[in-house]
Every structure is written in C-alpha cells, then in structure tokens.
Amino acid sequence: MQESEPAETRAHIVRPVEIEDAQQVIDLQNLVFGAKRTILNWNWKALENPYAQKVASVIESDAKIVAYYGVVGINLNLSGRPILCGQSTDTVVHPELRNQRLFKQSMELACELMIKAGIKFAFGFPNDQALPVNIHHANALPIAFAKYYFKKLSLASQLKARLKLSWLAYALDLPFVLLVRLACAAKEFTLRQRLSGSAVLSRSDQVDPNYDALWNVLKTQEIISLWKDAAYLKWRYDQHPTRKAQYFHCYHDGKLVGMANVLKRRNMLVVCELAVLNKSVIIGQLLLNDICRYCREQGLDGVSFYGHDRGFFGQVFSSFKYDPCRDLTLVGRMFVTDDRLCQLLHNAGNWSLTSGDTDEFY
User: Fold this and answer.
1) Cβ 65 vs Cβ 20: under 8 Å
2) Which pLDDT tens digit goes with each residue over 99-153?
3) Nearest Cα to 58, choosing from 109, 130, 134, 124?
C-alpha cells in the first residue's frame, strides 16, 4: 500500500549531502533516535571511510535538513575477490514530516549517488517500517535472515527490577553466577581435550598484527561475506570515535587460527565478528567460552550475536537460545547487469553474516 499525498506540502529540496550539513544531520538523528552522536561520528562514517566518502542524500525544507539517507561504502568478499558495495544506514525523516514520501525521495537520490560512486550492489537491514518501502519502491529483494542468539550469564538485573533491593538481587544471583563460572571452566577443559596440540587464548584492544595471514585463507573459504581484512577491522572498530572493541584471539601450535571481537550494548556483550580457520567448531567455541568468561568478569548480564551462514554459527552457538522475533532481514539491490553475480548475491546460502555487518554499531 503506497503512501497518500497530503493536501498541502512544503517545498522540499532533494540533494546530495554536503560537509556543511553535518551538524544538522546529527541533530536530526539525535532527535529521532534518541542518540548522543557528535560530529566525530559523522566524520568517521562519511569522510574517513576508506571505501567511499560522502555518499548520502538529504532533503531540505526552509533551510533545515528534514530527511537523510546515509550510505556506508564497504567491500564485499566474493570468494576472495572484493567488490564495492554500499550499506544503507542512519536513514531518518523528521517526525512531523512523515507520510510525505520523503524517505522514498531520499532513497532514490541515494541510489543514483551509489551508481555514480561505482557501487555495484546495495544492501541493508531495514526495520519493519522501512522494509516494505525497500521492497516495493527500491526494487530491493529480501535475501537472508540473520538469527538472534543470546545467553544470560547473570540474573541480577532481572531480580533487581522485581525486588527493588540491589543487595538481595546480587545475593540471590550468586549461586547462578558460580554455576556459570564452573560451566565455563568445564567447557574449556572439554574443548581442549578434543583439540590436538596446544591452544593459547589471548585478549587485546586491537586486531592481531598477524590477522591478515588468517584473512587471506578465510576469504577464499567464504562465498559471500564482508571484506574483513585488518584495514577494515581497524577502521570499523579500532578507529571508531565512541566505541572500542575487545578482541579475542586463539593460537593453535603458535599459529593464529581464530579471532572474535565484542562491543558492549546496554548491559550485554555483542559478538560482532567471529572468524575461524576452516570453520573449526572447537576453536569457535573456545573463543566464545572466553567471551562468556570475560562477560562475567565485567559484571555484565550476557552475550548476544546476530549470525547467518551454512551452519557453522549454529554449531558454535548451540548452547545459546534463539529468538526468531528478533531476526534481521538482509535486503539487496543490484546496480549492474550481471546475471551470474545477481544469482550469487540473491542466494541466502552463499552469505555469511555477523552482528558487525548490521548497522547496529555505526
């Protein structure tokens, strides 16, 4: 069902974003999203992006920005070959001007700007309100669903909300926390017994210097994923102006065979990336177990993850619960005529997706 035109509309100017628009865009996002973004966030996404800069549209009314459609340039990995793509993010319309087709207009110009920038494929994870517009007006097709996995490692927050007494909540939570710690220790012992050779786990606030050697193998083991070399991880996480990731590395007989990283969201840890050589479930679970241990060390409630692939993530997160009501829909649109590429990109089984691929932490 299409939106109906209002009887009277203001004169709107649809145009590419300019650097001078940054503060107005930020103010609009903070108003609508309830966020506290700064000029540093906008610079990081729009100007310091290593793949494509300032690919976005705005709608201006009475010299004020009332709508914005942002695109983050990104490389997709196609069986070891990078292709330039664009991910929609931070799309916003002023609450007083909704149902005037501003979202559709800003999206149409953003698509034109992506084509001009050499972007071959656009993708995103639209919310329930934006999904119909993406499908019916932007010619985007639903491709895959990123599943939501989560595991509670503390009951303190839930107990605190019900009992209204912090000391009692933490006292009642103590037996559960002790069981979690014992379970982590037993899990690690079992996994190490199943693993031939020695495994060393480490933590760091930045990606391992030897990570690219691992990525050079991983990129050929995926059909479609984001291009996650060290340069991408440094920009995406290490150089983020407000959030810093915690990295977890696994070495097997002295060789880096696994990497994961996490970000804090509210009182949970979100696993953003999980990259494991030859998709070893044992290595993946060793990393995940260390993340759970770190979560409890930080006094947080639990761990969550968005993931989609051909089965590896499901095995690694087999001890987690799955909430189908929180799945994210991946949609995409081709900007070039290439039947083979189109078939590959629109086949859900070809994709590998993680939480870090969504726009959750942009």
Assistant:
1) no
2) 888 988 999 999 999 999 999 999 999 888 778 777 777 778 999 999 999 999 9
3) 109
Mean pLDDT of all residues in 153-160:
73
Res 9 pLDDT > 60: no
Contact of 250 with 53, CB cutoff 8 Å: no
Q: Rounded to an integer, what distance in angstroms lies between the CA atom of residue 144 and that of residue 34?
A: 29
* DSSP-H helix ranges across 126-210: 131-137, 156-163, 166-194
Exposed / middle / buried, residue 360 (Cβ in 10 Å: 0-12, 13-18, 19+): middle
How far apart are the two ends of the chain, measured CA to CA in Å?
31
- Record the tokens describing residue 116, joined without a space: 């001009």
Residues forming a β-bridge with 152 = 302
Residues near 351 by beta carbon (within 8 Å), at least 6 away in sequence: 143, 144, 223, 224, 225, 308, 309, 330
Local structure of 102: helix, strand or coil = helix
User: Alpha carbon of 231 to those of 135, 222, 243, 246, 256: distances in Å?
Assistant: 33, 19, 17, 17, 17
Q: Are 116 and 154 in contact (CB under 8 A)?
A: no
pTM: 0.90
Residue 303's DSSP bridge partners are: 151, 269
